[in-house]
Predict the 3D structure of the following.
Amino acid sequence: QVQLVESGGGLVQAGGSLELSCAASGGSFSGYLVGWFRQTPGKDREFVAGISRTGTITRYADSVKGRFTVSRNNAENTVSLRTNSLKPEDTAVYLCAAGRIPLLTGSSATYSKLSLESVYTTWGQGTQVTVSS
């Protein structure tokens, strides 16, 4: 079971950018789907972006599509989330999560599963992103 650590959060003005990183240790990251979620006090955890094992399939929440980009480097056991054109409503704790699905899962099914919180079994502690107006 891998362990996950997020970094890269901070305080930024509206319109700014941050690059969040999720580093895995304790095993190879390449066998896992990786998702980014965010949480604010009093609200349910929200899916932000997800990426397949090889990085060929990505999925984004409508609220971040066109502004955020998820990528991965399996050789370095990292997944990144580039966040551009940040808005105050993007303020949250951002968490990365890893999960496994059967190796023979097709592309459409993989795409569907990327946004499902139930797929992810390992979670990091999160990194705070605060966007000021």
